[in-house]
Amino acid sequence: MLRAKRKHVFKWAIIFMCVIVSPLLSDSHVDVLASTKEVYKNIEIFSEVLRKIEKNYVDETVPRELIYGAIKGLIGTLDPHSFFMSPDEYKELMIETKGSFTGVGIELTIRDKVLTVVSPIEGTPAFEAGIKAGDKIIMIEDKSTEDTSIMEAVKLIRGPKGSKVKLTIRRSGVEKPIEFVITRDVIPIRSVRSSFLPSDIGYIRISNFQSDTGQELSKTLEDLENKRKLRGLVLDLRNNPGGLLSQAVEVADEFLDSGLIVSIKGRDDKEEKSIAHKDKKPRKYPMVVLVNGGSASAAEIVAGALQDNKKALILGTATFGKGSVQTLYPLSDGSGLRLTTALYFTPKGRSIQAEGIKPDIEVVFVPPQEKVTEKKPQILRERDLEGHIEKEPPEPKGDEEEGVLPDVLKRIDDDNQLRRAIQILQSWNIFSAMEGR
Questions:
Q1: CA–CA gap between residue 66 and residue 228 (Å, rounded)
Q2: Helix locations, 266-359, DSSP H
């Protein structure tokens, strides 16, 4: 029995060694061979440790768990966005990009060795509870998140619909930790929403980049353009944590007739370029793209492409700065590997990694409760004079607010960045009309 168990352990050890070594054997270059010898030397240590554990550890061990733990430790030496996933974790990740899932709705990263919120997804329990981009999660339930990987954190945060999870966070500018008890729910998969703003300006909000985001955007644009002749468009990428690179390229391509969208550079300076295609329907109306510190990854690709190609003004605050590309590798036993394989660059060659996209017009978001409420001095006007002539009855409103829903008007009132974007597009149209005289 013991001998059979030992054989099983060493079978896994041999598989693990082959996984590491086989890619190196595919290249006969001298430095690669030298590296291979170094790997073999260290694998001997790994095998030795495995034998010691199998023979001497106080409790019986499960070979698969030992190997998985070793792989996670290996990947953990790389960067915060590379990680190994068990079959269940890999299956969950696939569901997240293609369908709905149950949780609270936050995108996570490791920043300065601390579990950090990239962004809450709009309309989710985390968003409604008040979780913000940049919040540092220090505890999940009563467990410290120190040395917790992203996938481990995701596993702890997700759970059945209707169940609750307690998150303790540290927030910049707040002295004491804040506790949030959030009820889990099904996280919506719809990533594109739209409405009309005053002055025939369209508004499109992309909350994340999923497998059908490009297709959703194309249909949404067509619907808006069929209903009215757009005089401008606001593309809202705030608190968009990113997603699929392919969808970022499709979204940027919707607005560009030509030019480079993004270039990706991996090892050995190998470069891949994504080029825009000529649109069937030209979109010549002005655009403003809204971004903030929660705009990351795919959202930054879109903002950078539109900025460098001079298709849109970028308004808001500097973006998150995640400029690395992760490739998913399914493994033979159903597990998966997410590995950082390249960095991406804007059309002008700017690296976004740790820098982000800087807006053309910086406007810091001011929450509604922070609006200035001081009483303004009373100014005497014509209507205050006794016996003043009454004005004629007001004419019916034109098309400026036609079709603008009450909830949209309230959103505009509560959102100073959106108001500024509208003002820019309205002014743009005024100056364009003057130039055409």
A1: 61
A2: 298-308
Using the predicted structure, report yes or no on whether residue 169 has a pLDDT greater than 90.
yes
- Burial call 184-216: b when 16+ CB within 10 Å, e when fewer: bbebebebbebbbbbbbbbbbbbbbbbbbbbeb
The 10s digit of each residue's pLDDT in 264-311 is 999 887 899 999 998 777 888 999 999 999 999 999 999 999 999 999
Q: Residue 273 is encoded by which pair of tokens?
A: 């370029």
- Active site residue: 135, 200, 253, 308, which one? 308
Q: Tell me how far apart the alpha carbons of residues 327 and 169 are, in angstroms, rounded to a whole number.
A: 30
Could you confirm whether 297 is annotated as catalytic? yes
- Same-domain check for residues 222 and 242: yes
Query: Active-site residue 246, yes or no?
Result: no
pLDDT tens profile 94-126: 766 665 678 898 888 888 889 999 888 878 899
- The active-site residue, picked from 82, 135, 322, 324, is 322
Same domain, 171 and 196: no
Is 35 tagged catalytic? no
Domain, as residue range, for 250: 192-325+348-362
What separation in angstroms does the CA of 244 have from each of 97, 219, 347, 430? 8, 19, 19, 38
Q: Are residues 161 and 200 in the same domain?
A: no
